[in-house]
C-alpha cells in the first residue's frame, strides 16, 4: 500500500503543474469595498530573523470564498473538507468574446456550445471561466475598466448559466479571473450579486482572481486549492494550481 501511494505521488509530480495564483501586494487590484493591503516589516536579519505583518481583507488576491461569505449559518473556510479542494477541472474559454465585449455574461447557450465541441460537462467538476481578464493584472485601471460614469465593465457568469451547471450538470464549484462571479453589467442591473449568492448557497466554495487559465486544456486537468485555516473566516488568499493530464 505504501508503494502504491508513493508511485501515485511520483506519477502526479511527473505531470506539468500550472500556478493559477497571482502574487499580490499593497498596489494590486482588489474589490473596491476593501482597503489596500498593508505589509509591514517587523524584524530584519539585523535583528536575528526576518518577520512581517500582513493586513488585508480575506477576499484579497487569488482567494477562496466559503459559503458563509454570502449565506448565513453555513460553512467557514476551516469547515471545508480537504477532498473538496482537489477536483477535476473544466475550463470554458470565452476570451475572444470578452476581448470585444467587456459586458460579456455567460449564458446557457454558451455552455451548450462548449459541450458540443468538448462533450458534456461531468458531475463533480470545478468549472472555471476563462476570460483572459487576468492578463490585465496588476494594473488597477485596466482591471477595473471603468466607463465614463465610473462603473466597472468586467465580464462574468450569468445566473441562469450557473443554475444550469449546478442543477443540470451537478458540478461541484466554480472559479474565474475577476473580482466577482457576476458580470459588472448584471450587478448594475440587479443591484446585488445574484450569481455569487447562488453559488455559495449551494454549500460549496468558489475561487476568484485566477490566472493562467489560457495554459490549460478544456478538460482533463485537476485543480488543487491550498489555503490556510483561519478560524471563522469567510474567505482567504489561496494557492491554486492545476495538474495537467
If you had to describe this structure to a student in words, what would you say it looks like?
- The structure is a single chain.
- It is globular and about 60 Å long.
- A hairpin with a 7-residue loop joins strand 2 (38-43) and strand 3 (51-55).
- The protein has one domain: Glucose Oxidase, domain 1 (3-Layer(bba) Sandwich), CATH 3.50.30.50.
- The mean pLDDT is 97.
- The longest helix has 13 residues, at 2-14.
- The chain has a 7-stranded mixed β-barrel with strand order 4-10-9-7-5-11-12.
- It contains 7 helices and 12 strands.
- By secondary structure, the protein is an alpha/beta fold.
- It has helices at residues 2-14, 95-100, 108-118, 140-144, 159-168, 184-190, 194-200, and strands at 17-19, 38-43, 51-55, 63-65, 86-93, 105-106, 126-130, 156-157, 173-176, 206-208, 221-227, 235-243.
Amino acid at each position: 500500500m505504501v508503494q502504491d501511494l508513493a508511485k501515485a505521488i511520483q506519477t502526479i509530480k511527473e505531470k506539468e503543474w500550472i500556478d493559477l495564483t497571482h502574487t499580490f501586494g499593497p498596489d494590486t487590484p482588489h474589490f473596491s469595498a476593501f482597503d489596500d493591503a498593508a505589509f509591514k516589516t517587523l524584524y530584519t536579519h539585523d535583528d536575528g530573523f526576518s518577520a512581517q505583518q500582513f493586513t488585508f481583507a480575506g477576499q484579497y488576491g487569488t482567494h477562496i470564498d466559503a459559503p458563509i461569505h454570502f449565506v448565513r449559518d453555513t460553512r467557514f473556510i476551516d469547515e471545508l473538507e480537504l477532498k473538496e479542494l482537489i477536483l477535476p477541472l473544466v475550463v470554458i474559454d470565452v476570451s475572444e468574446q470578452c476581448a470585444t465585449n467587456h459586458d460579456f455574461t455567460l449564458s446557457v447557450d454558451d455552455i451548450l456550445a462548449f459541450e458540443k465541441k468538448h462533450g458534456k460537462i461531468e458531475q463533480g467538476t470545478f468549472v472555471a471561466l476563462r476570460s483572459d481578464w487576468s492578463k490585465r493584472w496588476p494594473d488597477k485601471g485596466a482591471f477595473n475598466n471603468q466607463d465614463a460614469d465610473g462603473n466597472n465593465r468586467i465580464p462574468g457568469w450569468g445566473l441562469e448559466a450557473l443554475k444550469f451547471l449546478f442543477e443540470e450538470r451537478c458540478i461541484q464549484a466554480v472559479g474565474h479571473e475577476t473580482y466577482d462571479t457576476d458580470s459588472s453589467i448584471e450587478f448594475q442591473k440587479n443591484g446585488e450579486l445574484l450569481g455569487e449568492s447562488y453559488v455559495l448557497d449551494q454549500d460549496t466554495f468558489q475561487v476568484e482572481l485566477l490566472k493562467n487559465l489560457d495554459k490549460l486544456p478544456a478538460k482533463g486537468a485537476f485543480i488543487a486549492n491550498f489555503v490556510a485555516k483561519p478560524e471563522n473566516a469567510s474567505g482567504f488568499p489561496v494557492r491554486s494550481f492545476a495538474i495537467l493530464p
